[in-house]
Specification:
Number of strands of chain B: 0
Largest sheet of chain A: none
Protein name (chain B): BHLH domain-containing protein
Helix content of chain B: over 70%
Number of domains of chain A: 1
CATH architecture of chain A: Irregular
Oligomer: heterodimer
Shape of chain B: globular
Keywords (chain B): Nucleus, Transcription, Transcription regulation
Pfam families (chain B): IBH1_N
Helix content of chain A: 55-70%
Subcellular location (chain B): Nucleus
GO molecular function, one term (chain B): protein dimerization activity
Strand content of chain A: under 5%
Structural class of chain A: mainly alpha
Largest interface: A-B, 59 and 63 residues
């Protein structure tokens, strides 16, 4: 833990400083609803990453569920009037 | 950047030209984070969601017209809609982010790699962790953290080999976009559910808010 400075002999692609990483992790923390209210001192980067992965996975699952429901709904409501009403209401906003 | 200008006045012009050339490249390195900044906040705007919803509806209608109605009713119909929704989401990103480009260019490869990784995950997780801790990792991050970064890289499409700051940038935008996708699809589902039961109430509510 002694030397935290990024070495100059890196591959030239990325000179990542730990401050930059900490900054980005803080930014990420603000996006995740679970971690938003916790102070950033008490939340480690590992927790933020873990929660980010969990959050993305849960979002994926939600989208999957919604797609399944949408496919069922679209299959069942085959009448053109229902879809026309939706499109009209969306376009007129 | 300040160190460049101080070092050498003659080499300065060359370096500035080189750095300008580097800035013009689309996928900049970690130095050029400022140039590649996308604003994830735009996913929160109502306008963006409206655009996405209408594009999604158009795409879904096209999908239904192309295939017979039996396809959408089957269990695979959900997946078709998921892929359509992801594609439309990627299009809405206007190609400025890596994950959106990855979704658009290789949808099939994404599916296959996701299935493959699920099998590989259980076998290789522990082994690679040990191996990697012995290699000289330049930033001296713990292997546990490294593993989580890798998992995150797998979750965001097309970002498996990205550097850490770029990966976090992509993840930020991806999360915001996913949230918008969920909002839009929820609203759409609500509309479809409501339209089946009370068509007048739903549409008049929306029209009413428009007129007032």
């Amino acid at each position: 833990m002694s030397s935290r400075r990024s070495r100059s002999r890196q591959s030239g692609v990325s000179r990542i400083t730990d401050d930059q990483i900490a900054d980005l992790v803080t930014k990420l923390q603000q996006l995740i609803p679970e971690l938003r209210n916790r102070s950033s001192d008490k939340v480690s980067a590992s927790t933020v990453l873990q929660e980010t992965c969990n959050y993305i996975r849960s979002l994926h699952r939600e989208v999957d569920d919604l797609s399944d429901r949408l496919s069922e709904l679209l299959a069942s409501t085959d009448s053109n009037s229902a879809q026309a009403a939706i499109i009209r209401s969306l376009l007129m906003q | 950047m300040a160190s460049y200008s101080i070092s050498n006045p003659e080499a300065n012009s060359n370096r500035s030209r080189e750095s300008k050339r580097k800035k013009r490249r689309k996928m900049g390195s970690g130095n050029q984070i400022e140039e590649n900044k996308m604003e994830p906040a735009r996913w929160k705007t109502e306008a963006e969601q409206q655009i996405y919803s209408s594009k999604l509806i158009a795409a879904l209608r096209q999908v239904r017209q192309n295939s017979t109605s039996t396809v959408t009713a089957s269990p695979a119909g959900g997946r078709v809609i998921r892929e359509t929704a992801d594609r439309v989401l990627a299009v809405s990103a206007k190609g400025r982010t890596r994950w959106s480009r990855a979704i658009l260019t290789n949808p099939l490869r994404l599916k296959l790699s996701r299935i493959n990784n699920k099998h590989k995950k259980h076998k290789k997780m522990k082994v690679t962790g040990d191996v990697r801790s012995k290699k000289p990792v330049a930033n001296k991050r713990l292997p546990a953290l490294q593993q989580k970064v890798r998992v995150l890289g797998r979750l965001v499409p097309g970002c498996r080999k990205l550097s850490f700051p770029n990966l976090l940038e992509e993840a930020t935008d991806y999360i915001a976009a996913l949230e918008m996708q969920v909002r839009a699809m929820t609203a759409l589902t609500g509309l479809l559910t409501g339209a089946g039961v009370r068509p007048e109430a739903v549409s008049s509510d929306r029209l009413g808010s428009n007129l007032s």
